[in-house]
Amino acid sequence: MIHSSENRNPVRAVRLCAGILLVALVIAVAPGLPAKGAQAPVALARGISVMLAPAVIEAELTRFLWHADTAAGAIAITNFASVSLSVNVKTYGVEHDANGHIDAMTVSTEESKALRVSPAAFVLKPGGSASVKLTVDPAYAADRAKNSLLAAVSFATRPAIQARAGSYIAAESVFVAPVMLRFSGKWVRKISVVGVQATGGGDGSSPTLMVTVRNDGNTYARASAVLSHRMPGMKTATELPVPSGVVFPGKVRVLEANLKDTRMPTGRWAAEVRLYADGVACAGVQCMMEVAASGEVRVSEVKLASLPQP
Question: Which position has the higher pLDDT, 260 or 37?
Answer without folding.
Answer: 260
